[in-house]
Amino acid sequence: MRFIDPHVHMSSRTTDDYEAMRDAGIVAVIEPAFWLGQPRTNVGSFIDYYASLLGWERFRAAQFGIKHYCTMGLNSKEANNEALAEAVMEILPQYVAKEGVVAVGEIGYDDQTELEDKYYRAQLELAKEVDLPVMIHTPHRDKKAGTTRSMDVALEHGLPPHKVIVDHNNEETVKETLDRGFWAAFTIYPKTKMGKERMAAVIEQYGSERIIVDSSADWGSSDPLAVPKCAAVMQERGISDEDIETCCYKNALAAYGQSGQFNESDWLDRDKIDQSNLFEGNSVLRGQEPFIEK
Amino acid sequence: MAMSDNACLLSFLETRLDAAAWQWLTDACEKLSTQASERDLFLSFSLAVRKCGKVALTLNDDELIKANQRCTDWSPLTWRTDHAARISLLFSYPHDDAETFCALLDRLFQAADLGEAEALYLSLPLLPFGEKHVARAQEGLRSNVKAVFEAVAHNSPFPRDHFADDAWNQMVLKALFIESQLNPIVGLEERCNPKLTRMLCDYAHERWAASREISIELWRCVGACADDDALADLKRVLETGQEHEQLAVALSVKDKQPQLLDAYPTLHEQLTQGLCWHDLLANVKA
User: Fold this and answer.
1) A277 pLDDT band (50/70/90 cuts)?
2) Which of A59, A94, A123, A129 is the best mutation test for B, with the most CBs of B within 10 A?
3) In A, residues 187-216, which contact B (CB 8 Å cutoff)?
4) CA–CA distance, A200 with A198 (Å, rounded to integer)
């Protein structure tokens, strides 16, 4: 079975991860712009980060046969540094409509401060202007109210629910998210957020319509194989292949495909892997024989 | 750059874009020229590929003549719809002041993805304040992304018109290093110089020492300014090279050093039959 991991921070992962992901059937990944575990101190760090999502990381993924896409945005945590946030909002128009950018995200609330609200709203407007879907990061703390508020504000700004992916759902938030017509994404984390068994139970209860499974793997304790592993658990529990394919592949394709930048043909007809290629003079290899797919 | 250059680009697009894309582009250009919002320029510059596609222009002969009339020796053979649309947007934005325009270009380059970088580098011969963009052009040549290198080096009079010898020589030598063609470089013969000849012959010796193949195009910039050492290298190819290498040397020396060919009547014959670089390279490829 083919999988998409529509939320994974590959910049923090190793080439072993890429190989394992490809072997497990992951054909495409979306890397949302996020924070780096510690706050950045100047706009130049954002410029280089955005450039790496569009350039080096895309190249690196291609070397392992995986198509890499990204979302662009100012995350909620760093929205709290107003001077920096203003500078980032000024450069964002230069990145948000680039090739392979499939959404504005991940944006939304963390502490639900006034500044977070201000930049969340500004970015919803930007998404409308360039006609892109929005990927919402819902807060860890005060989750239920924060998720409701995220959706309220998106609607207030005129975003149609079908253009909005609400991520990091759990059993407490999923019903409202689905009832209001939004896409409900779930992050499968080894310990926090959502577990594989719980995910399977959600599918059993709600079906697979508009539900998206992702790993959100990053620099913390997380699993880049969460999507295929979760699919295996669902299979064991007797969930149909059709439902599994819907929540682990097709829904992500439909939701982010609305950008016009995320097409199945991108990976079905992709170039053969050729690790002898260089990106700005750099190779992913360190003396190994290049792998050239036949 | 006169607006008429932009009219030229737009005329190439008008016959190739569908109605919706053409409408989007002309509206965006109009808005940029009247309201001059940097933010609008940045957004539309990125969006151009989504709206106008990535299709080769493949200009017809009349259009290529028109391009050449707008800008001498400019041949937009590799331009695509996204390239042309992006440069039209850039030219629609006011660009009367050199300092402001260069600062704007810096910001576009800084955030450019691959397609955008190609478009910007392809536009070099059309840009106003050409002398201000020499360092930028050299920066493009430092890229190891072949498409970016070639956007600067190929089918463009910019390097010929603006580069000092050292920059020119590095460009030619690097083209050989990254296995890019020399033939599309504008001004190859007229910019030949003794230092380049020496650099190329040194490179040929390195390749010979390593028993590696040498691009026949290397000899093209050797014949015109050959000193005694270079003449010895040319003779070596005539004596020991394969036929296509001998023909390359014959083309290279036919004007300045024709006596080298006295002992090679078959090469002479090929020259009198009108052999040229284009055909020779096409034959080698085939």
Assistant:
1) confident
2) A94
3) none
4) 5
- List, in sequence order, every residue forming a beta bridge with A5; answer none if it has no partner: A29
Quick: pLDDT tens for A80-109.
Answer: 999 999 999 999 999 999 999 999 999 999
> What's the gap in Å between the CA of B141 and the closest CA on chain A?
11
Average pLDDT of the segment spanning B118-145: 94
Domains of chain A: 3-268 (3.20.20.140)
Taking the C-alpha atoms of residue A134 and residue A166, their distance in angstroms, rounded to an integer, is 8
Within chain A, how many helices (H) and strands (E) appear?
12, 8
User: Is B177 inside any structural domain?
Assistant: no
Q: What pLDDT shows up at residue A190?
A: 77
- Put simply, whether B103 touches A (Cβ < 8 Å) is no
Q: Do A97 and B145 touch (CB under 8 A)?
A: no
Of B43, B110, B145, nearest to A130 by CB-CB distance is B43
Examine the domain organization and report whether B13 and B149 are in the same domain: yes
Distance from CA of A51 to the nearest CA of B (A): 7
Total domain count, chain B: 2
- B23 and B125 both lie in a single domain: yes
pLDDT tens sequence across A104-162: 999 999 999 999 999 999 999 999 999 999 999 999 999 999 999 999 999 999 999 99
What 3-state class would DSSP assign to A213? strand
- Which chain B positions have a beta carbon within 8 Å of A281's beta carbon? 144
Q: Which helix (DSSP H) or strand (DSSP E) does residue B103 occupy?
A: helix B98-110
pLDDT at B13: 98
At B2 the pLDDT is 46
CB half-sphere exposure, A28, CA atoms < 13 A: 24
What is the chain B residue with the closest CA to A102? Answer: B50
Task: Indicate if B37 and B155 belong to the same structural domain.
Answer: yes
Q: Do B150 and B27 reside in the same domain of the chain?
A: yes
Do B243 and B118 share a structural domain?
Answer: no
Does some domain include residue B52?
yes
- What is the nearest CA distance from A175 to chain B, expressed in angstroms? 35
- Cβ-Cβ contacts under 8 Å, B43 against chain A: 93, 96-97, 129-130
* Cβ contacts of B32 within 8 Å, gap of 6 or more: B40, B41, B44, B89, B92, B93
Query: What token pair was written down for A37?
Result: 């575990």
Over residues B21-40, mean pLDDT: 96
pLDDT at A281: 67
Tell me if B81 is assigned to some domain: yes
Q: Which residue's entry shows tokens 């460009």? A: B171
The answer to whether residue B209 is domain-embedded is: yes
Interface pTM, i.e. ipTM: 0.78
In this prediction, residue B130 has a pLDDT band, given cuts at 50, 70 and 90, of: very high
Tell me, yes or no, if B111 comes closer than 8 A to chain A by beta carbon. yes
Cβ–Cβ gap B145/A280 under 8 Å: yes
Q: What are the chain B neighbours of A47 within 8 Å (beta carbons)?
A: 110-111
- Residue B1: pLDDT over 50: no
State the residue range of the domain holding B98. 3-165
Q: Is the same domain home to B125 and B210?
A: no
pTM of the predicted protein model: 0.86
Neighbours of A282 (CB within 10 A): 11
Is A276 an interface residue toward B (CB < 8 Å)? Answer: no
Q: Are B148 and B78 in contact (CB under 8 A)?
A: no
